[in-house]
Specification:
Blueprint lengths: L1 E6 L4 E6 L8 E10 L5 E12 L4 E11 L1 E6 L9 E6 L3 E8 L11 E9 L5 E6 L5 E6 L3 E8 L2 E9 L5 E6 L6 E6 L4 E5 L6 E6 L7 E6 L6 E6 L3 E6 L7 E7 L6 E4 L6 E5 L5 E6 L4 E7 L6 E6 L15 E5 L4 E5 L9
Antiparallel strand pairs: 1-28, 2-3, 3-4, 4-5, 6-7, 7-8, 8-9, 10-11, 11-12, 12-13, 14-15, 15-16, 16-17, 18-19, 19-20, 20-21, 22-23, 23-24, 24-25, 26-27, 27-28
């Protein structure tokens, strides 16, 4: 069910709902636009929206212009601190913003992003970022195949270590939420790897180079099953891995989603349910079952590359109009941001 939509001022590539209590109505959307010429400019922006799906509201309340952005992520909830938004951009910068105001208690709800730290961590482009469970560190994937581990402190951000993890662009990196000393990486070189960052330089725990037929775009650890991790690839497959033998994970199941699997987002409350952005084939909701993954629902109301996808974390209200969860999605060239609710009763999956 479509709820609302709008067009951004640049090519839309990432959307993220704030997961923190009192801020779960806040949606961030980022853009990356290449302005060609003798000296090309990679421009971007972050837009903040106030979302109320039951009222059909998608209201812009703040925007900041930036370099071209590849990824944004809100800090994890376990940090017990005010929400922070991290940005990975084409100029090699990692920037951290605090969200000022904008809580549910304020009327009208507004707020703004305040940059609290920003450092150029690489001469390469920053392609992806992930917070550790305590929001004290960030892993950053770089266009030269390296990964950086950044620590977040009151004094600013500091690079703890950086190493050449892959041969080509490192599209994705992911902390293990159950064992945060482990960091997973995936790259255009078709390799899926794991590293133990307690060592410096980090020790490689495993590397699988045989299963993915094209580049690895995204990695997501199951929030409820410590032995399960998911990968998505340009080869159009979402794969389920068994990590019980951490040095040799087993690809136990896979499903073709008909387009390159650019993002995977586990549902915040429903175990085994994931939202996937499938590039040339829209978006899909997939149930990771005991035997094999199944597509529960697809969404094809975008006319361009499906890149950004996010679940709203707000609890499903039994007395509300819908028993589903609000979803935000965005597509690249048509600059389209959409809010919708799955037709499927999420509570019954």
């Amino acid at each position: 069910m479509d709820v609302a939509h709008c067009y951004l001022e640049g090519n839309a590539d990432a959307v993220e709902f704030c997961p923190h209590d009192d801020y779960q109505h806040v949606l961030a959307a980022s853009t990356y636009t290449l302005q060609e010429g003798e000296q090309p400019i990679r421009a971007g922006s972050i837009s903040l929206f106030d979302v109320n799906a039951e009222k059909g509201n998608l209201e812009l309340f703040h925007r900041v212009n930036t370099a071209g952005i590849f990824d944004i992520k809100w800090s994890t909830v376990g940090a017990n601190a005010a929400p922070l938004l991290a940005q990975a951009d084409a100029d090699g910068y990692l920037r951290i913003y605090s969200l000022e105001g904008s809580s549910n208690e304020e009327k009208p709800r507004g707020g703004f992003l305040n940059e609290v730290s920003g450092e150029r961590i690489s001469s390469s482009m920053c392609l992806f970022l992930d917070w550790n469970p305590l929001a004290t560190s960030i892993s950053v994937g770089l266009s030269d195949g390296s990964v950086s581990i950044i620590t977040i402190a009151e004094s600013g951000i500091e690079k703890l270590q950086e190493w050449k993890a892959h041969d080509f662009e490192l599209w994705t990196t992911c902390f293990d939420i159950h064992q945060p000393q482990l960091v997973y990486t995936g790259s255009d070189d078709c390799k899926f790897s794991c590293w133990d960052i307690r060592d410096s330089p980090s020790e490689r725990v495993f590397q699988n180079s045989k299963v993915h037929k094209m580049g690895v775009c995204c990695i997501a650890k199951s929030p409820t099953d410590p032995n399960t991790i998911l990968t998505g690839s340009y080869d159009e497959y979402l794969r389920v891995w068994d990590l019980r033998s951490i040095s040799r994970p087993v690809n136990e199941a896979s499903i073709c989603l008909g387009g390159g699997v650019w993002r995977i987002k586990p549902h915040p409350f429903v175990s085994g349910l994931v939202l996937a952005a499938c590039m040339h084939n829209g978006f899909a909701i997939v149930k990771i079952g005991e035997k094999k993954p199944d597509v529960v629902e697809t969404y094809s109301q975008h006319g361009s590359l499906a890149y950004g996808a996010a679940w709203q974390r707000a609890k499903i209200s039994p007395g509300g109009k819908s028993k589903s969860t609000t979803v935000a999605t965005c597509s690249f060239y048509d600059r389209l941001l959409r809010l919708w609710m799955p037709k499927t009763d999420i509570c019954c999956i």
